[in-house]
């Protein structure tokens, strides 16, 4: 392995935490429900992501849709205005992110082994850039190795965005490894590009029907470093 490239949302940080803070400020959602609610939120977000990216739906409309639908799944009915208020707080808390504790050790290992580091993330450019800054990722990862779909006009799982990263780090596809939490966006995209891929399935989602398979599956974040070292040792 000569390059380790990472997803951002719910991979480098726990995306449930800012969501939980925003929702519980307005609704009596119990901690025990929160993970399932967040998974529903992500699923409904995926339903409208392509339409919002293509301009067929406004970003605001997509935010209302995903928040209202996920809350309704659990019996919480909110207005468009309430949904946007929760979304606004969610975005605010996303500017106060904490890097998941396993990554400093992973980054130090990669630096020692001279493994290139990078990020590929879907989302609006400035919104994702604010998360990058909040996590202080440029301490370990060069800015030119952080690819944001909103800036490039292409989203995962499109092979082209993975090919672009391989060109930037000047590493052959078979020597690249990608880590991400979304099977459809991260694993499918990386395998299409000929990369190795680790599925960080800490939400324990069911693996979809696909001709592609991850090279490793991690369900506990603390096991990720060991899987990376095993792939590196191949």
TrEMBL record:
InterPro entries: HAD-like_hydrolase, HAD-like_sf, HAD-SF_hydro_IA, HAD_sf, PGP-like_dom2. One of its GO terms (molecular function) is metal ion binding. GO terms for biological process: small molecule metabolic process. Coiled coil: none annotated. It holds the Pfam family Hydrolase. Its cofactor is Mg(2+). Keywords: Hydrolase, Magnesium, Metal-binding. The keyword rRNA processing does not apply. This is Haloacid dehalogenase. It comes from Streptococcus azizii. SUPFAM superfamilies: HAD-like.
């Amino acid at each position: 392995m000569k390059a380790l490239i990472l997803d951002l949302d719910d991979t480098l940080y726990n995306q449930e935490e800012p969501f939980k803070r925003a929702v519980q400020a307005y609704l009596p959602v119990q901690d025990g429900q929160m993970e399932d609610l967040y998974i529903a939120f992500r699923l409904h977000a995926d339903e409208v992501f392509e339409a919002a990216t293509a301009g067929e739906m406004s970003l605001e409309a997509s935010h209302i849709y995903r928040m209202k639908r996920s809350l309704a799944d659990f019996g919480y009915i909110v207005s468009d205005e309430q949904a946007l208020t929760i979304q606004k707080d969610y975005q605010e808390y996303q500017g106060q992110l904490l890097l998941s504790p396993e990554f400093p050790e992973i980054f130090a290992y990669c630096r020692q082994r001279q493994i290139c580091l990078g990020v590929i993330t879907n989302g609006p450019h400035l919104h994702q850039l604010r998360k990058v800054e909040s996590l202080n990722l440029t301490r370990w990862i060069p800015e030119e190795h952080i690819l944001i779909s909103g800036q490039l006009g292409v989203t995962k799982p499109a092979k082209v965005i993975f090919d672009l990263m391989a060109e930037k780090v000047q590493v052959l596809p078979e020597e690249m490894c990608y880590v991400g939490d979304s099977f459809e966006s991260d694993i499918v995209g990386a395998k299409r590009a000929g990369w190795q891929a680790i599925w960080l399935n800490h939400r324990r989602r069911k693996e979809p029907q696909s001709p592609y398979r991850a090279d490793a599956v991690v369900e506990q974040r603390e096991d990720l470093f060991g899987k990376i070292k095993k792939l590196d040792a191949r």
